[in-house]
Amino acid sequence: MASGVVELVNQALTSLGVEPINDLEENSRPARFAKQKYEHVRDVVLRSHVWNSATKRASLPRLEGVPVFGYAYQYQLPADFLRLLTINQHPKERHRIEHNRVLLTDVEAAQITYVARIDTIVEMDLLLQEVIAARLAVELAMPLKGDIALRSQLMGEYQEKYAEAMYADAKEKPMEQLSGSEWVEGRQSGPHSTWIDARR
């Protein structure tokens, strides 16, 4: 895994009162569980909101042939794709995403904005890093501590950090991005679809 992951994992372990690790490959329970859960937690948090530092643009390569029915063209989505935001700058362009990250649509040339999987920690906003560490602490609470009350406490802390990060992230978006469907989705995103007003 990319450099910086161990530091982020150690933030989560510190929240649990667990000794930090030196490497995810070391033979210890914290390292084994962290390695097992980190990538899933990272991707869930990244996909849950339109994070500025995880938003990318791409011109998609059109695949040979046409869909069997329903759409005119098919395109290959990027390997780091997590969530589609717009096609040719339109959030509601008719489309469908199917097996092997294939995008079906009627547009002749597809340029997309999307939420990407970010492997390098330093490319993430600092508050986003804290959100991932907080969520990882929640997921590690039971396997490492077996403490339901602690897990509940950490979930509350995660939700607070998520709200703070989403608010800061939203303030850095152009106003036109907050007035359309992205704004509606942003309000409904987050832990357990908690309603959070990002413009408060």
Q: Would you kindly provide a brief summary of this structure?
A:
The protein is an alpha+beta fold. It has helices at residues 5-16, 29-47, 126-145, 148-171, 175-178, 181-188; strands spanning 55-59, 73-76, 81-87, 95-98, 102-105, 111-116.
Question: What are the defining features of this structure?
Answer:
200 residues; three-stranded antiparallel sheet; elongated; disordered C terminus; alpha+beta; 6 helices
Write the layout of secondary structure elements.
Blueprint: H1 5-16, H2 29-47, E1 55-59, E2 73-76, E3 81-87, E4 95-98, E5 102-105, E6 111-116, H3 126-145, H4 148-171, H5 175-178, H6 181-188
Antiparallel strand pairs: 1-6, 2-5, 3-6, 4-5
Helix pairs in contact: 1-3, 2-3, 3-4
Describe the structure.
- It is a single chain.
- This protein is α+β, with helices and mostly antiparallel strands and 200 residues long.
- 44% of the residues lie in helices and 15% in strands.
- The protein has two domains: 5-51 and 124-193; 52-116, no CATH class.
- It contains six helices and six strands, in the order ααββββββαααα.
- Strands 1-6-3 form a three-stranded antiparallel sheet, covered by helices on one side.
- α1 crosses α3 and α2 crosses α3.
- Residues 178-189 and 192-200 have low confidence and may be disordered.
